[in-house]
Each structure stands twice: as structure tokens, then as C-alpha cells.
Amino acid sequence: MTTHIPDQTGRTAIITGGSSGIGKATAMALAAKGARVILAVRDQNRGRAAAAEMGGLAESRPLDLGSLASVREFADTVDAPVDYLINNAGSMTSTLRHTADGFESQFGTNHLGHFALTNLLLGRVTRRVITVSSTNYRNAHIDFEDLQWQRRPYRPFGAYGQTKLANLLFTRELQRRLDEAGSPVLATAAHPGWAATGFTMTTGKRLLDRTLALATRLLAQTAEGGARPVLLATVGDVPGAGFCGPSRFGVRGPAALEELSGEALDDEIARKLWEVSERLTRVEFPMPAA
Fold first, then answer.
1. Residue at 47 is within a domain
2. Where do runs of H (alpha helix) occur along the chain?
3. Which CATH number covers residue 234?
4. Is residue 4 part of a domain?
5. How far apart are CA 258 and CA 190, in angstroms?
6. Is position 46 within any domain?
7. Gene3D superfamilies, alphabetically (predicted)?
8. In this structure, are residues 153 and 209 in contact, taking their beta carbons and an 8 Å threshold?
9. Cα(161)–Cα(261) distance, integer angstroms
10. DSSP code of residue 113
11. Long-range contacts for 280-285 (Cβ within 8 Å, ≥24 apart)?
12. Is the dihedral of CA 191, 193, 195, 198 positive or negative?
């Protein structure tokens, strides 16, 4: 998987959720090319074990994306330039749960945690911010009247899809702001297709969940295969706000650029989501306009 990755000696990558699945596969590929990788994970036992597999330039640091206090504490530990910030970690739950800050857990972890982390670290990022999304964005909608699912009946897939759409809108608006600030940093996004990573998709319906789990075991590609689009978005020839995924029906195979569709292309929604996210996290874009 590392054949087409250029030498990464002297470069640093922070990878959220880097102790397992696609995050770990991405980290291992970069580490194999000489990069220093920082695994930003909740479980330090798993993080340290994963870092040990990658060699002396890998380390694990605590980060709970469901806690804005933890996000700030992690950001305070980063005092050197970062070439790549890879927002990979994700959460899905079949029941309505909340983060330490009171946000719906999927929205708080998958979007707001990464939003805050990115803006807190952006002054130290030198090359790219990569955010891992999903094709579930296609049928999703940002409901600004009920972002936290306080009035609607909770739908796990609906909540997950909203966060994955938010990831893409965040990437789009981040790139616009970087351009406006005259920054050379690129914001890109990727999705892994169908990959067997240990990440559990739950609908709350037992039979459907079992069917999905069986299909994943039989048909999905490996975590290493799912990491290919993330690596392309990290080190490949990809434009700002570019979206990478598997080239074979968006499910598996070699990585390639993909066309976005629907609400993911709406600049007005992207700007509104950014403003709402700033208010909720109390973290703002740190760069002035050029």
C-alpha cells in the first residue's frame, strides 16, 4: 500500500482514532515511509500498543473528541509544526446519547470535536487537513432547527449521515477560508468505501444489523484498502476540497477523486454550519483574511 507514497521523513501526521481500523492503517503506511505519527485516541493502552507496532517515531496521546476540554488539552500538547491533520475518528450509536458537553454524541464527536481540533491546531498545520467522511452523506440533510435530535424521533443512520455531510461541508468552508487567508494549506476529504474495520454500523434493528455485519465480513475490503483514499487525500495530487474514494463503484478498489453531489456542494449551508459550529464550540477560525 505504500508503493505510491513519497518519502515522509521529517514530516508529522496527527491521526484521530489512529489505534485501529482505517486510522491505524493510514498511520502505519505513513510511518513506514518515515513520518512521525501521533495517534490521538481515547484508549491509551490500545494507542501505545499500536504505536509500538509502528516503530520509534510513533506515539500515542489522549484525545476524547466527545469532550471539548479534552480537545483543548490535546491541542495544548502540540507545540511543533504538523504537516497533516487527519480527522479520522468516528462514532455511531443506535440510541440517543450525549457528549460531555451535551451534544448529540455522533454530531458532537464526528463533527464538532474535529471542528474544534482543526481550528485550535490550524496555526501549526503546514500542508493538509484531511477529514474522513462517508457516502452516507448523499441522503443526509443538515437540520439546523434540530441539530441535536431533541424534537425528532432519533434515527441512528440519519444522525450518522448528518455528521458525514457536516464533515464535507466543513471541508468545503475550511478551504474557502484558507484561500481567503492566502494560506497554502489544503483541506481535503475521503471516504473508505465498504471496509471491514471493526467500526460498527448500527440501525437499532437487530436483523438488519446482523445482515450488515455478515455482508461486511463477506464483501468488504480490508482496513488497508479503506485507507487508500485517505492516503490519496493526504499525499496525492488532490485539489482543495477534493473528495477521494474507492474507484470501483465507490465501494472498493484503487483510490480516485470523486464528484460530490447534493447538499455537500451548497456554499450557503457550509457557511451557516461553520457559524453554528463556532458558537457551539466557542472555537473560531484563527486566520485573518489576506
1. yes
2. 21-32, 44-54, 68-77, 105-106, 114-121, 156-180, 206-219, 223-235, 267-281
3. 3.40.50.720
4. no
5. 9
6. yes
7. NAD(P)-binding Rossmann-like Domain (3.40.50.720)
8. no
9. 14
10. I
11. 280/103, 280/112, 281/68, 281/112, 281/115, 281/116, 281/119, 282/68, 283/68, 283/115, 283/116, 283/119, 283/120, 284/119, 285/119, 285/122, 285/177
12. positive
> Is residue 167 domain-resident?
yes
Retrieve residue 66's grid coordinates: 466527545
Q: What is the dihedral of CA 249, 254, 255, 256, to 10 degrees?
A: -70
Place of cell 465507490: 250
24: confidence class by pLDDT, cuts 50, 70, 90: very high
Distance CA 167, CA 130 (A): 10
Considering 84, 137, 154, 160, which one is annotated as catalytic? 160
C-alpha cell at 252: 472498493
Residue 129: name the closest of 253, 19, 16, 267 by CA.
Answer: 16
CA distance 223 to 147: 31
- What is the extent of the structural domain holding 110? 12-281
- For residue 88, what is its C-alpha cell? 479520522
* CA angle, residues 252, 257, 262, in degrees to nearest 5: 95
**Strand pairing report for 36-41 and 12-16:** parallel
| Residue whose C-alpha cell reads 477560525 in the numeric block | 285
Q: How many CB atoms lie within 10 A of CB 39?
A: 28
* pLDDT, tens digit, 9 for 90 and up, residues 155-194: 999 999 999 999 999 999 999 999 999 999 999 999 998 6
Active site residue 160: yes
Place of cell 455478515: 214
pTM of the predicted model as reported, rounded to 2 decimal places: 0.91
Q: Give residue 254's pLDDT.
A: 86
How many domains, the chain? 1
- CA–CA gap between residue 118 and residue 203 (Å, rounded): 29
Q: What span, in angstroms and rounded, lies between the C-alpha atoms of 258 and 250?
A: 8
